[in-house]
Write a structure and sequence with these properties.
The chain has 456 residues and is α+β, with helices and mostly antiparallel strands. The protein is 48% helix and 16% strand. It is built from 13 helices and 14 strands. The strands form three sheets. Strands 1, 2, 3, 4, 5, 6 and 7 form a seven-stranded antiparallel beta sheet that branches. Strands 9-11-12-14-13 form a five-stranded mixed beta sheet.
């Protein structure tokens, strides 16, 4: 079934951009409305008595007929700013007035009752009846009027606007978070279920979505099925390999038992061959068992293990662990810790596998007749086993790759040193045993690999 593609208008990116654009637009509109509200002229108030006393007698006096014109000073500081001309049937304003001042004068002219409005440092009052028509008069604003204007304008609109913006942003964040983060949490939980081996993770209704998250959910569901099928195939492969590898080793063991004689029992080479064949079978079983442990097919069973006995047994077998018989013998070149070591609750085969690989690497990459030292330190509830050689060490940039499969620090110097699986196998075994492994260049020279394992 072909994968359903997300259309552009269903895209999560398009939706997020639309939401953010809408929030920005709404915020801009709210701010613009607040600015308009705050910058709006103050409302009209009751006309002061001085207008009545000083202006009305002059406006109604016969001597002022024909002299009431915009901009004309009538008396004192009272100046005409607008006249609703009866002759022209229109309002005439003082030239040079701002649009705001014209608007205030026009509003006053339309008022049914005389009012006044403070504009800047002047007070506009009106309308007053005259022989030329209704007029609006301006005079300098008094200190009381300016104080009242400041008191009326001193309102907490900006703090309120900030609080409203914070509340709106918080609400928008909650909605956006619920809409966007909730499916991410579902995807996270589904990923954990897939990592735990589930072939049908709980994705709820996510696969039905038509955006990128829906695509991701559908891909994840398909991947879970494929991973489950791959794990099943790997388990079948492990079972087949186990059978194929065990069969020839088992036949070798039977052949050795059948050809055994009293003379062969006294032959050191035969005894070692007998021991190594049985050990080869044990190693094959441990590697396959390690893979089964990592795939959850087996459970680790730990027993008390004498570390000193494992090291002594390894020391006695060193001569036969060599790949190249032309190289000097490894016998007697392994230095073991002198202190008494505690018992370890672990798997003896895996522990021997780890130490043997580290010791073998130490001899193979160290100098001729060089020594390999095994030291141990107990710290709290864990033991640290360190295997150190006398070789040139490893470049710092390659230390992080030491435990990668098929990696060899200097393959040109040791053609017979294996294919680079020893340390990778050690790391896998250490992790199964619940420990950790670390490699570093020793200050006195050589490579030191430390394995930390819990005592119990």
């Amino acid at each position: 079934m072909p994968e359903r593609r997300t259309r552009w208008y269903q895209s999560l990116t398009f939706r997020l951009l639309t939401i953010f654009w809408s929030l920005i637009l709404l915020t801009a509109m709210a701010a613009f409305s607040a600015v308009l509200y705050l910058s709006a002229p103050p409302g009209p108030t009751e006309l002061a008595e001085d207008y009545q006393r000083a202006i009305e007698p002059i406006l109604n006096h016969p001597s002022t007929e024909g002299m009431i014109q915009p901009g004309r000073l009538l008396v004192g500081q009272y100046r005409v700013v607008a006249v609703n001309s009866l002759e022209l049937n229109e309002i005439i304003y003082v030239p040079g007035m701002s649009q705001f001042q014209v608007g205030v004068a026009f509003d006053i002219m339309q008022s049914a009752e005389p009012v006044q409005v403070v504009v800047g440092e002047h007070t506009y009052g009106g309308p007053f009846a005259s022989s030329e028509g209704d007029v609006v008069i301006a005079r300098p604003a008094s200190s009381e009027e300016l104080a009242m204007l400041a008191e009326n304008g001193d309102q907490d609109w900006w703090p309120r606007l900030i609080l409203i913006s914070i509340a709106a942003s918080f609400l928008g964040a909650l909605i956006l978070g619920w809409w966007f983060v909730r499916p991410l949490r579902q995807l996270r939980n589904a990923t954990r279920e897939i990592a735990a081996g589930s072939a049908e993770p709980n994705l709820a209704r996510l696969p039905k979505r038509k955006d990128e998250l829906g695509e991701l959910a559908r891909t994840m569901a398909t991947t879970a099925v494929q991973l489950a099928s791959s794990r099943d195939a790997q388990r079948r492969l492990l079972s087949d390999i186990s059978h194929e590898l065990r069969s020839p080793v088992g036949r070798l063991q039977v052949a050795l038992d059948l050809m055994e004689t009293d003379e062969l029992r006294k032959n050191r080479n035969y005894l070692q061959l007998h021991k190594d064949i049985y050990r080869l079978g044990s190693i094959i079983d441990s590697i396959l068992w390690l893979s089964r442990l990592e795939n959850g097919l087996e459970k680790l069973v730990k027993d008390p293990v004498d570390i000193a006995a494992v090291l002594k047994d390894l020391q006695s077998d060193l001569y036969y662990l060599q790949y190249d018989k032309n190289q000097p013998s490894w016998e007697g070149r392994l230095q073991l810790p002198a202190r008494k070591l505690p018992e370890l609750e672990t798997d003896a085969v895996l522990l021997r596998l780890i130490i043997e690989n580290l010791v073998r690497n130490g001899f193979q990459y160290g100098p001729e007749n060089g020594q390999v030292r095994v030291s141990a330190a107990v710290k709290g509830d864990e033991i640290a086993l360190t295997v150190r050689d006398e070789g040139p060490g490893v470049p710092k940039e390659k230390l992080s790759k030491m435990f990668e499969p098929f990696f060899r620090a200097d393959p040109s110097r040791h053609h017979g040193a294996g294919v680079g699986l020893g340390l990778a196998l050690c790391q896998r075994a250490v992790l199964v045993l619940g420990g950790s492994i670390h490699a570093e260049n020793h200050p006195e020279g050589g490579l030191a690999v430390t394995v930390r394992l819990p005592l119990s």
